[in-house]
Design a protein that fits this description.
The chain has 300 residues and is α/β, with parallel strands linked by helices. Helices cover 35% and strands 28% of the residues. The chain contains eleven helices and 14 strands. It is globular, with a radius of gyration of 22 Å. The two termini are 32 Å apart.
Length: 300
C-alpha cells in the first residue's frame, strides 16, 4: 500500500527526514508517533507527493512518487491536521464539491452522501453551515469527506486533537469500522492510548529517524518492565532514595517518581501507611515506551 525506502529530506541544510524505511500492509492501521519536529508531517507530505524527497524511493498504491502522485491520490483519502472545510458551504455541499475533485459525477456523490453522513453521525446536519458545527462534528465531517471517493488508503494526521473524550471515542469506533471493512490507515497521533488501541503496528520517529517499530505490545515488552508504580508528593524523592533499589529502574519528573518493576508487591509494601505520598499502580503502556525512547524534555 505504501513503501518508503531510505527517504531523505532537508530544508536549508537541516535534515528533517533521515533515511526512513516504512511499509504498510493492506488492511492494517499503521501509526507514526514522535515528538513535535520528529518529521511525521514531512513524512506524510513526502508519501503524498506534496514534497519531493532529496533521495530514496517512495511507492504509493503501486505508483512511483512523486512522478505519479496525482494518479495515486485518486485512490487516497486524507484527514489533515487542521480542518480545511469550506465555511461557505453546507455539510452536504462540502462533500459534493470535494467529490468533484476526484472526477466523480454528481449522481455518484449524491448516492454516497447519505451513507457518509450516517457514518459520521451527521444525518441531522445536512443543511448546516460549517460555522454552526462543533469541533467534534467538524472532525467527523472531515473523516466523511476523506471517504467520499471510497479510498483504499486513508492518511489521518492527528485526527482527534482538540476533541473531548466522547468525540474521541466515536472517532476511534469509526476508524475500527474502516479497518474491519478492509481499509488501510496511516495514523499520526500524540495520544499514546489512541495508538495502543488502534494501531496494528507503528513506528516511533525522533529527529527524522525511525528509532523503533513493532506492534504496541511488542514495543512495551521490549523496552519496559511490566509494572509501573507512580509515586507523588513532596516525600517522593526521599522515598526513591530509600526504596528505589527495589525497582529495576526509577525515573523522576517534577515531584513524581516512576518506578518500573517486575515485582510490584514488594515496592507497594514500602508505601503502605504513608500519609505523605500518593501512588498509582498500573501496567506498562505505550506512553512509557515513548518517553523512554524520546525523553521527557519538552519539544517546541
Amino acid at each position: 500500500m505504501l513503501t518508503l525506502q531510505q527517504v531523505h529530506k532537508a530544508y536549508g541544510g537541516q535534515a528533517v527526514v533521515c533515511g526512513i524505511d516504512l511499509e504498510l500492509r493492506p488492511g492494517e492501521c499503521y501509526g507514526l508517533l514522535g515528538p513535535n519536529g520528529a518529521g511525521k508531517t514531512t513524512t506524510l507530505r513526502l508519501a503524498l507527493g506534496l514534497t519531493d524527497p532529496d533521495s530514496g524511493r517512495i511507492e504509493l498504491l503501486g505508483e512511483p512518487i512523486p512522478g505519479r502522485a496525482r494518479e495515486a491520490r485518486l485512490r487516497l483519502g486524507v484527514v489533515p491536521q487542521l480542518d480545511n472545510l469550506d465555511p461557505d458551504f453546507t455539510v452536504t455541499e462540502n462533500l459534493l464539491v470535494y467529490g468533484r475533485y476526484f472526477g466523480m459525477r454528481d449522481a455518484q456523490i449524491q448516492a454516497r452522501i447519505p451513507g457518509l453522513l450516517r457514518f459520521a453521525g451527521l444525518e441531522a446536519r445536512t443543511g448546516a453551515k460549517i460555522t454552526a458545527l462543533s469541533g467534534g462534528m467538524k472532525r467527523r465531517l472531515a473523516l466523511a469527506r476523506a471517504l467520499v471517493n471510497d479510498p483504499d488508503l486513508l492518511f489521518l494526521d492527528e485526527p482527534t486533537t482538540g476533541l473531548d473524550p466522547q468525540a474521541r471515542h466515536l472517532i476511534w469506533e469509526r476508524l475500527k469500522q474502516l479497518v474491519a471493512q478492509g481499509k488501510t490507515l496511516l495514523l499520526t497521533t500524540h495520544f499514546m492510548d489512541e495508538a495502543e488501541r488502534l494501531c496494528d503496528r507503528l513506528s516511533i520517529l525522533d529527529r527524522g529517524r525511525v528509532i523503533s517499530s513493532g506492534t504496541p505490545q511488542e514495543l512495551i515488552g521490549r523496552f519496559i518492565e511490566p509494572q509501573v508504580i507512580e509515586v507523588y508528593g513532596e516525600g517522593a524523592q526521599a522515598w526513591s532514595a530509600a526504596s528505589g533499589h527495589l525497582c529495576e529502574r526509577c525515573e523522576r519528573a517534577g515531584e513524581t517518581v516512576f518506578c518500573y518493576t517486575r515485582d510490584g508487591d514488594r515496592v507497594l509494601e514500602t508505601l503502605e501507611g504513608r500519609q505523605d505520598l500518593r501512588y498509582l499502580h498500573r501496567r506498562a503502556n505505550l506512553e512509557d515506551v515513548f518517553l523512554k525512547l524520546t525523553g521527557r524534555d519538552l519539544r517546541d
